[in-house]
Write a structure and sequence with these properties.
9-stranded mixed β-sheet; two-stranded antiparallel ribbon; Carbamate kinase
């Protein structure tokens, strides 16, 4: 009987929003939600896939929303606070993965040497080659740059074969399917179409970087059963953004 979960990709980058670590729209870190993600990642790890994970921090603090509340805290400071929130999620994911027996390294673009290694491209690649799950926190280390763009840049730097964007929607739609019952799902889009249509599932800059690097993007619902494994195995779920056929 064929193995339907045999990996299609050897090395991938998974983008997890901060919401993936929360529960029911509540702020903070849910151990149950984190464990559910870690269990999927462990199964991918056991199949020998080299896995880098960019984590967001929106379940703890969104820099843009925080700075919009008033002028007491400057936007750049709010963004740095958001970057530190991603480190907290990274630590939670690291400990949970190690509980299940995966070897990991947490690298941060913001220096927090007591809890994470500084992000150095060659070091990250070496960790991947040694079979460790590399968790990437701190965005790019710069304010005014989203974690989507950080994922695109890290994907190019680490020579991954695809960027996997985990969401709570099963792909890219013509409109928000939560609000518009007539929204239609795209199975495939070109980079140009995604940018032109301004679909907002990822930043335009993230699409543009992936276009320049010829790096395919798969947008999928990580809440579906075995979704991360299925995407890495090449199952036709979610929406693929790439070059023209």
């Amino acid at each position: 009987m064929p193995d339907t979960m045999s990996p299609k990709y050897r090395r991938v980058l998974l983008k997890l929003s901060g919401e993936a670590f929360g529960h029911g729209g509540k702020s903070g870190i849910s151990q149950d939600e984190t464990a559910a993600i870690a269990q999927q990642l462990k199964r991918v790890y056991d199949r020998g896939v080299q896995l880098a994970v960019v984590v967001g921090g929106g379940n703890i603090l969104r820099g843009a929303h925080f700075s919009a509340a008033g002028d007491t805290i400057k936007p750049a400071t709010a963004d740095y606070m958001g970057m530190l929130a991603t480190v907290m999620n990274g630590l939670a994911l690291q400990d949970t993965l190690e509980k299940y027996g995966a070897e990991t390294r947490l690298l941060s673009a913001v220096r927090v040497d007591m809890v994470a290694e500084p992000y150095i491209r060659r070091r990250a690649i070496r960790h991947l080659e040694k079979g460790r799950i590399v968790i990437l926190a701190g965005g790019t280390g710069n304010p005014f740059v989203t974690t989507d763009t950080a994922a695109a840049l890290r994907g190019m730097e680490l020579n991954v074969e695809a960027v996997l964007k985990a969401t709570k929607v099963d792909g890219i739609y013509t409109a928000d399917p939560m609000k518009d019952p007539y929204a239609e799902k795209y199975d495939r889009l070109t980079y140009e179409e995604a940018i032109k249509k301004d679909l907002q599932v990822m930043d335009v800059s993230a699409f543009d970087h992936c276009k320049k690097g010829k790096l395919p993007i798969v947008v999928f619902n990580y809440k579906m059963e075995n979704a991360i494994e299925k995407v890495i195995a090449g199952h036709p779920i979610g929406t693929v953004v790439g070059a023209k056929l």
